[in-house]
Structure formats: C-alpha cells, structure tokens
Design a protein that fits this description.
- With 214 residues, the chain is α+β, with helices and mostly antiparallel strands.
- The chain contains eight helices and eight strands, in the order H-E-E-H-H-E-H-H-E-E-E-H-E-H-E-H.
- A hairpin with a 5-residue loop joins strand 5 and strand 6.
- Helix 3 crosses helix 6.
- The longest helix is centred in the middle third of the chain and has 18 residues.
- The N and C termini lie far apart (42 Å).
Length: 214
C-alpha cells in the first residue's frame, strides 16, 4: 500500500508552518531542518568542546565529491584556545563586530588538484563545488546540534595563506563562524534590524525543465 512520508512525519513542512524555530514556510514538501537553518550574527560567546566541533566536521566528511576526492579542508579555532586570535584577526572589522561572540571560527580551503586513475596529478574542476557541499553538511549538522553557522566572504584570504600555513595547490574559499543563538539585542542596532531568517526565491526562478530561461 502506498503512503506519503510527508504526512506521516511531523518534521516535514509543506505550505504551513510546522517548525517552531522559524517563520519560513516551504512551497513544496521538505524536511523542517532546511527551514531551521539560517545564518544569524548574534551568538552567546560560550566555549565549545572539541567533541562538538568534531561532530560538525564528521557531517562534512560525508558530503559528496567528484571521484570521492574529498577536496575540503577545515582549519578551526575554538574560543578560549591559543588559536582563536589568529583566525579572528583574519576577519574584516565588520565581521569581527559580531563574530567575536562565536564559539568556533573556521576557514574552509579546497585542494584544486587530484590524483587520477593514471596516477598523475590533474586539475580538480569541481573542488569548489564539492567543498561547498561539505560546508552545507557542516552547517546543517550545526543546526541539528543546537548551534548556527554563518559563512563569510569578508576576510583576508591572501593573509590567511601564510598565517594558517596553507600550501600551494589549495584555494581559500570562505570563513565560518559557529555559535549558539543569542538575543538580537546583543548586536549593534544596524545588525539587529537584519537579524531574522530571510526568505528565498521560488523554485520557478532558478529551475527550468529542459532549457534555461532568463
């Protein structure tokens, strides 16, 4: 007998709000975890355990990648450790204003070559694409673990290379701040006004059957 998991599973959201942590509503049936994931800036500033960080990274480990090359590399620093200032100092001042209260900071790097079946090192055309998948897995696990992850382009990529010991053949992709959600009143007024889950364009604006449509 056929049945629909969307109606049987209370964690799915379709057309009506079925998640208590966000005002987002899906147009099509999806798991509520995709609505609950968003990128806040207000964090509590509490420390995080190594084991919890490894849980996030374990999720990233299982992201798909071309030929299973797994090009992603995460350099991280937990609040309260000797490494924190090094990663924090790479952020743009506008991001330091709020990321100072994160529990862990990360820099995502991708390996831009791989060893092919012939044993030769070749360019990896999908390394950025694959590393983006790893970031998404990590962000989802952070949310499921009671945290939130916020990706950043605003940091000094050039300075990250020598300061983090990144060798040639790797591309610096993004910085990431992860923490537990705090009240938006902890943010400067201009950021507090933006502290809410944002919406998304409808599927029809980016998905086209058979042929691209402008």
């Amino acid at each position: 007998m056929a049945f629909s998991c969307y109606h049987a599973n209370p964690y799915f959201s379709y057309g009506v709000l079925m998640s208590s942590s966000t005002p987002r509503v899906a147009d099509h049936p999806i798991d509520a975890q995709f609505l609950n994931r968003w990128s806040p800036r207000a964090f509590t500033g509490e420390e995080i355990s190594e084991a919890t960080v490894h849980t996030f990274l374990e999720a990233a480990r299982w992201a798909p990648s071309a030929s299973n090359t797994q090009p992603w590399r995460f350099i991280y620093a937990r609040r309260g450790t000797a490494h924190w200032d090094r990663l924090f100092g790479l952020l743009n001042p506008s991001n330091q204003v709020w990321a100072k209260n994160a529990s862990v900071l990360m820099v995502l790097v991708s390996k831009n070559t791989f060893i092919g079946a012939n044993g030769q090192e070749s360019p990896a055309p999908c390394h950025t694409f694959d590393s983006g998948a790893a970031w998404a897995y990590l962000a989802m696990q952070a949310t499921l673990s009671g945290y939130h992850a916020h990706g950043m382009a605003g940091f000094d990529k050039a300075r990250a290379v020598p300061e983090l010991g990144i060798p040639a053949g790797y591309t610096v992709e993004a910085a990431i701040a992860i923490g537990k959600l705090a009240d938006k009143s902890t943010l400067p007024e201009n950021l507090a006004a933006r502290e809410m889950p944002n919406s998304r364009n409808p599927v029809s604006s980016f998905a086209f059957e058979g042929q691209f449509k402008a």
